[in-house]
Design brief:
heterodimer, A: about 230 residues, two-stranded antiparallel ribbon, 9 helices, B: about 110 residues, alpha+beta, five-stranded mixed beta sheet, 2 helices, globular
Chain lengths: ~230, ~110
């Protein structure tokens, strides 16, 4: 018997978390070229998107597990999900700022995959590409379009949390004199369990046991002073 | 009763989508044709000019919340993909049940 869709979703979700742990390790290693960390980030994001696609019981699981891309589509719909709506209730302007930043980052991360948009944006985290007469090597490239990842908004894009513990990514702090580097007060993460196809009551129960994926709350906090 | 609550929640969610998504043109609230259970999800097919065109309908499923105590499945297509789908339901790859035949169309509210 083949694995259930829920089992597939869980598997993709867990592997995404593991990929992100590797991203964090590589990103924190000054002697390792940036492309390697970004490669893991791209793979993690792709798997997260697939985990949420697999929660739709009607899509073809075989197609989902073998296709590439989908991060931007996922982030666009996730930003419209009830969980995000609850976090940003009555804060439409703030939501607009967050949405713009998150989607810009999503597009850049998705383009890191060599199979995506190779003709117009050949830069990717894995294979050399041509730039005029030069062959550009990923491990010697700085990926300037992803500099946003080191901004406060970018760090929150990366933030993953489990129900009771960090998944290895650094807890985001404002890093300013104003906050003295203290962690932002924890707020509920806005993505819940991939086991969403249970009844609401069961889903809430499962959500406590499942790691949650991405929190935008620190991003909101970081952007609030700009509005 | 459950159907009415789901419908109300769906309409509130759609109203929020129109407020925060400037490129959203219309939303189709799909009626249950595949999943007819009491806790069938809210399924929204949204026509959005800012979504990437993929030639297919790609739904993502999300958990219930206190405000929307139903599973929600959302897919976005571009206006061009919508036109193709309207003229030929088989023009876009889509999961079973993601058809316009049993959908209610909700257009962007007129400002003012």
């Amino acid at each position: 018997m083949a694995p259930s869709r829920e089992a597939w979703a869980s598997a993709f979700h867990r592997q995404a978390r593991s990929d992100l742990l590797v991203y964090e390790l590589l990103a924190a290693s000054p002697n390792i070229p940036r492309c390697h960390a970004l490669h893991y980030l791209q793979m993690a994001c792709e798997k997260i998107a697939k985990a949420f696609r697999l929660r739709d019981t009607e899509s073809d699981a075989d197609v989902l597990t073998t296709s590439h891309g989908g991060l931007v589509k996922f982030m666009k719909t996730w930003l419209l999900s009830p969980s995000v709506g609850r976090v940003y209730a009555g804060r439409d302007a703030m939501f607009g700022v967050v949405r713009t930043r998150v989607l810009a980052l999503s597009r850049e991360v998705e383009r890191l995959a060599p199979a995506i948009d190779r003709d117009t944006t050949p830069a990717n985290s894995e294979y050399p590409w041509a730039d005029g007469e030069n062959a550009v090597v990923p491990c010697e490239y700085t990926f300037p379009s992803l500099s946003l990842l080191t901004d406060p908004g970018g760090r929150s894009f990366l933030k993953l949390e489990g129900p009771h513990r960090s998944l290895g990514l650094r807890r985001w702090t404002r890093g300013s004199a104003r906050s003295r580097g203290r962690p932002i007060a924890a707020r509920p993460c806005v993505l819940a369990s991939p086991a969403c196809f249970a009844s609401p009551a069961r889903s809430a129960e499962r959500s406590r046991a499942w790691p949650r994926v991405v929190s935008l709350s620190p991003l909101r906090a970081s952007l609030s002073s700009r509005l | 009763m459950q159907d009415r609550a789901r419908d109300t929640a769906a309409r509130e969610l759609i109203a929020w989508h129109f407020r925060v998504e400037p490129e959203l043109q219309r939303v189709f609230l799909l009626r249950a044709s595949v999943d007819t259970s009491a806790d069938a999800p809210i399924r929204l097919l949204e026509v959005n000019a800012s979504t990437p065109a993929t030639g297919s309908i790609e739904p993502f499923g999300f958990s219930p919340t206190d405000d929307v105590p139903f599973r929600t499945v959302i897919a976005e297509i571009t206006p061009e993909e919508y036109e193709r789908l309207r003229s030929d339901p088989s023009a876009l790859k889509h999961p079973p049940g993601w058809e316009l035949s049993f959908a209610e169309e909700i257009t962007r509210p007129v400002p003012g």
